[in-house]
Amino acid sequence: MSYQTADLCDEFPELIKVAEPIFSCFGQKAAFGGEISTVKVHEDNVLVKERLGQAGHGKVLVVDGGGSTRCALVGDLLAQSAIDNGWEGIIVYGCIRDSATIDGMDIGIQALATHPMKSVKRGRGDHDLPVTFAGITFFPGQYVYADADGVIVAEKKLK
After folding, report:
1. CATH number at residue 66
2. How many domains, the chain?
3. What single-letter DSSP state applies at residue 120?
4. Claim: this prediction has a pTM higher than 0.85
5. What is the extent of the structural domain holding 19?
6. Which of 10, 63, 145, 151 would suit a FRET pair with 36, their CA atoms being 20 to 30 Å apart?
7. Could you report the average pLDDT of every consecutive run of 10 residues in the chain (159 residues)?
8. Is residue 157 in some structural domain?
9. Distance CA 89, CA 109 (A)
């Protein structure tokens, strides 16, 4: 399903929170949305890989990477895993890599920037907890919608 965040803001202004405009768009899906699933990591993408390796139908993985721009948390292999497992999209408060390849893939990703360095692999972090960045809190089980105009969150499914 396609979403326009501007239209959702117009239709449901009292139900949404709008993230600060800090993200860039990657992948073929210009717009995506779904139930929030979260991971919180620091320069370590083991939990990101684990989560994207699970079924994600109707969900968006929100990755709180602490805003680090020292390495990438998602690359083309993890993007393909997300596609294979039915994830609607990924929002990364951090960096991705393999952006040229990802731009040709049927996935929507929003991230701060790109970085060619891979992350460490220690398996440290948390999942399924509220994460806060870009001026809002992302709660697991709530809904996020993203497109070229921005990222919005609602407590319930809007469309």
Report:
1. 3.50.30.40
2. 1
3. B
4. yes
5. 5-152
6. 10
7. 89 97 97 98 98 97 98 98 98 98 98 97 96 98 97 95
8. no
9. 6
